[in-house]
Design a protein that fits this description.
By secondary structure, the protein is α+β, with helices and mostly antiparallel strands. Helix content is 48%, strand content 13%. A two-stranded antiparallel sheet has the order 1-2. The relative contact order is 0.05. This is OSBL5 protein.
C-alpha cells in the first residue's frame, strides 16, 4: 500500500508507477502478531531481531554479521544433534512423503461457514476457528427428540403385543390389534427443514432453532448482496 517508482538508469529520470489511494490503504488487512515478550526463541521476529534492527538502521555490514552469527549457531546445533543421534521433531509441521513437502499439522481446508464460524485466531502457533456450534446443538437436540420418539413407538408396540396375548374376547382383541398394528401417524418435514429421519414434526425448541438459523441465513445473504453492491 505504498508508492512504487520506476527509475530510468540511462537518464536518471524517475516516475511514479503505483500510488495507492486512501481507499486502497483503508482496505489493507489488519496485521495480528504475537506480542514479542510472548514469542518463543525460534519465532522469526525474535530469532532475527538483530538482523532486522541492523537493516532498519541501514547498516548492511552489521546485518550481514548478525546473519552469519545466527546461521553459525544453527549449524552448530544441527552438528550436536547428529553427534548425539537426536532427531529433530518439528512442532507445527509434518513431512508428507508422498509429495516430499512439509505441511502444517493443523491446516483446516474446509470452506468458511458464515453461519457457524465467527473468527480465526492463532494460539501457540496453532490456527483455530471460533464457532457458534449452532449446528452441533441442533444435531444433538434432534438426536434426543428422535430417540425419545423411537422409545415411545417401541413402548406402544410392546403394549400392543401384551394386549394381543391377553385372555380378552376375540372381538376386543381384533380391535386392539387393529388399532396398534400401525404406529402413530408421522408427519415429515419439508426438504428445506430436513426430513428429521421421518420421526414426527419438529418439537418447539427445534422449530425455534430452525427459524433462528433461517433468520441468520437471510441476514448473511443480505450482507453479501450489500457487499457486492458496494464493490460494484
Amino acid at each position: 500500500d505504498g508508492e512504487v517508482h520506476i527509475n530510468e538508469l540511462k537518464n536518471g529520470n524517475a516516475e511514479v508507477f503505483w500510488n495507492p489511494t486512501s481507499e486502497v490503504r483503508r482496505q489493507r488487512l489488519k496485521r495480528h502478531i504475537v506480542l514479542f515478550e510472548e514469542q518463543t526463541d525460534f519465532e522469526s521476529e525474535r530469532l532475527w531481531q538483530h538482523v532486522t534492527s541492523a537493516i532498519n538502521k541501514g547498516d548492511q555490514h552489521k546485518a550481514t554479521q548478525e546473519k552469519f552469527v545466527l546461521e553459525e549457531e544453527q549449524r552448530n546445533a544441527a552438528r550436536e544433534r547428529r553427534e548425539n543421534s537426536t532427531e529433530w521433531k518439528p512442532l507445527l509441521f509434518r513431512h508428507d512423503a508422498a509429495t516430499n513437502e512439509w505441511r502444517y499439522k493443523y491446516e483446516d481446508l474446509r470452506p468458511w461457514d458464515p453461519l457457524n464460524d465467527i473468527a480465526q485466531f492463532e494460539k501457540n502457533g496453532i490456527l483455530q476457528t471460533m464457532e457458534r456450534h449452532l449446528s452441533t446443538r441442533m444435531s444433538n437436540h434432534k438426536t434426543t427428540c428422535v430417540n425419545s420418539q423411537i422409545t415411545r413407538h417401541k413402548r406402544s408396540a410392546k403394549d400392543c403385543r401384551r394386549r394381543k396375548t391377553s385372555d380378552q374376547p376375540s372381538n376386543h382383541s381384533q380391535n386392539t390389534e387393529s388399532s396398534c398394528s400401525t404406529p402413530e401417524s408421522v408427519q415429515e418435514l419439508s426438504d428445506d427443514d430436513g426430513k428429521y429421519l421421518g420421526f414426527g414434526s419438529l418439537c418447539t425448541q427445534c422449530g425455534k432453532e430452525m427459524n433462528h438459523l433461517k433468520e441468520i441465513h437471510s441476514a448473511v445473504l443480505s450482507l453479501q448482496r450489500a457487499q457486492q453492491d458496494i464493490h460494484r
